[in-house]
Amino acid sequence: MKPLQDLVRPNIWALQPYSCARDEFQGEASVYLDANENPFNAPINRYPDPRQTNLKERLSVVKGIPVENICLGNGSDECIDLIYRIFCEPAQDNVVAIAPTYGMYRVCADINNVAYREVLLDSDFQLNATRLLGVCDAHTKVIWLCSPNNPTGNCLNHSTIQRVLREFDGIVVVDEAYGDFADQPLFRHELKQWPNLVVLNTFSKCWASAGIRLGMAFASKEIIELMHRVKYPYNINTLTQRQALDVLSEIQKIDLWRATLLRERMQMLPAIAELPICEKVYPTDANFFLAKMTDAKAIYQYLMKQGIIVRDRSRVQLCDNCLRITIGTPQENNTLLGALRRFR
Ligand SMILES: *Cc1c(COP(=O)(O)O)cnc(C)c1O
Q1: pLDDT tens digits for 304-318?
Q2: How crowded is residue 273: how many other Cβ atoms within 10 Å of its Cβ?
Q3: d(CA 90, CA 141)
Q4: 175 lines ligand 1 (CB under 6 A)
Q5: C-alpha–C-alpha distance, residues 48 and 20, integer Å
Q6: DSSP labels for 111-131?
Q7: Does the Cβ of 75 fall within 6 Å of ligand 1?
């Protein structure tokens, strides 16, 4: 890895961060007259903790990651944007990503005016490290990897990702939004090994809390410190912090939901695969799967008329005629299967 200073935009490296009232005074007091808050309407009259210390201490235990290696964002989407704003000089630097993958990496590149280079996955949706590294140049700051990948559902080969981490001298992001549904070793447990690694996690999928908008980045203390300097001071609101603590206090419930979804996934894959209108179901490590159909567009329209919405991915590279289908409740999955069996 290059020295961190060589990877960070000079204006960000030199940034004097905004110092908010809650940064200047940390601790317990009886009278707070420092932040121009309204004294009425407790508890939401107060600004939230800008460092989310209570929440991070709980997360640290659940995820097995020290507090100093955690940054929280308004969804992982905020973390993605922060990475561009920290590392990528607009109109000068570039990033390299796999394709197909999660759409936000490109949208954030476009918003930040950063060139986005794609390297197509193999026909089995695996990563070719030689081709990926071959596309990088002196202005490549970040490589985006997603495992399990969206929309393909599969994990990228672990040792191939390790090779990218070893041989690329910039930042490598591994988005593990669906990691809890996979039975593969997770990259967040390899943070100590790779100073250039950023792992993304989210409350939106396995933790069933997409509505509170809470994502996580795990990285070296130095990278996390930069993210804290650049993010809005109060990016995680009081209600979200409180609800996240509630979710973490009932983690057994999440484990039961996950077990149900994994069981349903195991039953859905062969059931869909044997439909005459299905050509292939791709293997998945996530709470969704990709299915190649005889006529994805017609089937999508048909399902929509029945009030069943899946994702038509047929215009995505390597996903000709593919639908992306999320695993729902047993009842929802049966409704989908019934409708597909009646399709003519
Ligand atoms: C759903 C998803 C996320 C989650 O984003 P949030 O902003 O945390 O809701 C992140 N990465 C991938 C690949 C996803 O599919």
Answers
A1: 999 999 999 999 999
A2: 15
A3: 12
A4: yes
A5: 11
A6: HTT-EEEEEE--TTS---HHH
A7: yes
Q: Is 63 helix (H, G, I), strand (E, B) or coil?
A: helix
Taking only the tens place, the pLDDT of each residue in 99-143 is: 999 999 999 999 999 999 999 999 999 999 999 999 999 999 999
Is the torsion defined by CA of 278, 284, 289, 292 positive or negative?
negative
User: How many independent structural domains does the chain possess?
Assistant: 2
- Cα separation, 246 vs 315, whole angstroms: 40
pLDDT, residue 344, reads 86
Cβ atoms of residues 161 and 175 within 8 Å: no
End-to-end Cα separation, the chain, in angstroms: 56
Question: Which of 205, 222, 249 is a domain's end point?
Answer: 249
E strands present in the chain: 70-73, 94-99, 115-120, 140-146, 171-175, 197-202, 215-218, 278-281, 288-293, 311-312, 322-326
299: pLDDT confidence band, cut at 50, 70 and 90? Answer: very high
**Residue 294 and residue 261 share a domain:** yes
Query: Is the dihedral angle over the CA atoms 274, 182, 227, 48 positive or is it negative?
Result: positive
What's the average model confidence in pLDDT over 161-187? 98
- Closest atom, ligand 1, to C-alpha of 202: 8
Give residue 201's identity as a one-letter amino acid code. N
Residues 188 and 202 in one domain: yes
Neighbours of 195 (CB within 10 A): 14
| Domain match, 245 and 256 both | no
Same domain, 235 and 262: no
Strand partners, 146: 175
8 A C-beta contact, residue 290 and residue 317: no
Which residue out of 72, 77, 213 has the highest number of ligand 1 atoms within 8 Å of its CB and is therefore the one to mutate? 77
The predicted-structure confidence for 180-191, as pLDDT tens digits, reads as follows 999 999 999 999
The amino acid at residue 283 is: P
Out of 76, 79, 98, mutate this one to test ligand 1's pocket (max ligand atoms within 8 Å of CB): namely: 76
* Ligand 1 contacts CB of residue 140 (under 6 A): no
